[in-house]
Design brief:
single chain; 139 residues; alpha+beta; ph1033 like fold; 6-stranded mixed beta sheet; 6 helices; 6 strands; DNA-binding; THYN1-like_EVE; EVE domain-containing protein; EVE_domain; PUA-like_sf
DNA sequence: GCCAACGTTGGC
DNA sequence: GCCAACGTTGGC
């Protein structure tokens, strides 16, 4: 299983919106690097939901429910389907991620504007620990 | 509101 | 194909 981080401005689409919807199409990504990651996602992969901009914190865990399909008028972009797994018991602010040496190499820090980035299993475990997440959400 | 990072566009 | 100009994003 692979781990990912998907960011969204909560004003545009938030964790609460995802919980309300039950499942959603993660579309509208218009960045070549992000697309590489979207196309690498397979059902069962886990992803951190990160609120950018106004909140700047990881807020929940999602599961990829369907591999990518073409997105956009010309079909040259990609989108996947996701569903919520569990909210993080304690949201993990960006400031805490930056302050944690074990997360210094995280892709989201290296490329701060990238909306879909990869997370290593080690990084995933650290973030879940910081969030106080139990095994159910962390696995 | 400002600024840095970075992707995209367009002229050459 | 290169590179400067420009626009957008996101953190502060």
């Amino acid at each position: 299983m692979a781990y990912w981080l998907l960011r969204s401005e909560p004003d545009a689409y938030s964790w609460d919106d995802l919980v309300r919807d039950g499942e959603t199409e993660w579309n509208g990504v218009r960045n070549a690097t992000a697309r590489i990651h979207l196309k690498a996602m397979v059902p069962g992969d886990r992803a951190i939901f990160y609120h950018s901009n106004t909140e700047r914190a990881c807020v929940g865990v999602m599961e990829i429910t369907r591999a990518w399909q073409p997105d956009g008028d010309d079909g040259k972009w990609a989108s996947v389907a996701v569903k919520p797994v569990a909210p993080l018991p304690r949201p993990v602010p960006l400031a805490d991620i930056k302050a944690e040496p074990k997360l210094a190499e995280m892709m989201m820090l290296k490329q701060s504007r990238l909306s879909c980035s990869a997370v290593t299993p080690e990084e995933w475990a650290v973030v879940m620990h910081m969030a106080g997440a139990t095994d159910a959400a962390a696995a």
